[in-house]
Amino acid sequence: MTFERTGFRHDMAARRARVARTLRLAPTVVRVTFAGDELAGLAADGPEDHVKVFFPDPATGELHAPRMVDGALQRPTSGVSVSRDYTPRAVRQTDDGTELDLELVLHGVDDGGPSGPASSWAASAAEGDELVVAGPRGSRGVPAGIERLVLVADETAMPAAARWIEHAPAGVEVTVILDLADDDADAYVDAPAPDGRSSPFARTSVERLYRSDGPGQVEEAVRSLDLDDPATTYVWAAGEAGTLIPVRRYLRHELGLSPDQVKVDGYWKRGVTNRDHHEPLDPSDPD
Ligand SMILES: Cc1cc2nc3c(=O)[nH]c(=O)nc-3n(C[C@H](O)[C@H](O)[C@H](O)COP(=O)(O)OP(=O)(O)OC[C@H]3O[C@@H](n4cnc5c(N)ncnc54)[C@H](O)[C@@H]3O)c2cc1C
Asked: What is the DSSP letter of 48?
């Protein structure tokens, strides 16, 4: 089965953005709202769009990021450039201009695990802080013709999963498996959407798994799904790369779903700094 996905490229853009406000959605997740004149024209229309966010170098506190010069992207010529991928959870127009919401996981801040420049920045983000947002480079719509959408997401992929739910056409059955650190993350699942409406996860069938209960649960939950007739099903999964390798193997090789029906994206990898999600999830079996 092949599903068509509309897609288009955006003009290259790097935009300076200023923190307007922050909202702690759960102990380890913060929604940061950005404003600023350069956000004008920002569009993020696809559920899994992503931007490259440039953070200050933690060693110096200096921000070295690309900027637009005469319509062309000019990369910084000095300093250390620190960037990570994030999902535009919402883009909205207000009387004061365009606002952008990102939702960032604060890993390693209180949990004893490794932190990183993005996580540490987000933990102390305050009104007026500045960074640079580049992209998104492109947007792709929900595949046409699907009857069922299965979403598998950890906290880093929940902004995109929420957008998948919001973009799914009426009548599409949505099933969600969430891979959460522990039940503190329930507050994030239940948090209102940026527009103030109830959590998009409240509108779907959601299975909550807690990593604190042990490994292997995500694969087991995906294996337990009733996917006997997957012809009209699309599966989108994102989160920790190692967790998702067996999920992808099951979907692609045991169930035989085609690459057009399945996307499994390693948003981060345990022990790896700034993982490039364009690298194959499973190096022994690249697409
Ligand atoms: C397309 C795309 C969209 C994404 N969207 C979002 C989003 O909307 N919100 C979001 O929070 N993240 C999102 N991510 C994931 C985010 O880019 C990574 O988690 C990133 O590594 C965080 O950067 P850092 O500087 O905090 O940590 P890094 O410097 O990259 O890593 C330092 C250490 O922390 C570990 N680490 C990284 N992330 C986590 C984590 N979540 N939990 C535990 N340990 C971790 C690494 O394994 C490494 O050991 C997205 C990633 C991709 C590819």
From this structure: T
> Would you say the CB of residue 97 lies under 6 angstroms from ligand 1?
no
| Ligand 1 centroid distance, CA of 195 (Å) | 25
Asked if residue 118 has its Cβ within 6 Å of ligand 1, the reply is yes
- Judged by DSSP in three states, 101 sits in strand
Atom 52 of ligand 1: nearest residue by CA position: 267
Fold (CATH) for 142-268: Rossmann fold (3.40.50)
Query: For a pocket test of ligand 1, which of 29, 48, 119, 279 has the largest count of ligand atoms closer than 8 A to its C-beta?
Result: 119
CATH code for the structural domain at 8-138: 2.40.30.10
Ligand 1 centre and the CA of 274: distance in Å? 7
Rounded mean pLDDT of 4-20?
94
Tell me: the pLDDT tens digits for 180-224? 999 999 999 999 999 999 999 999 999 999 999 999 999 999 999
- Domain boundaries defined on the chain: 8-138, 142-268
Chain segment 143-167, per-residue pLDDT in tens: 999 999 999 999 999 999 999 999 9
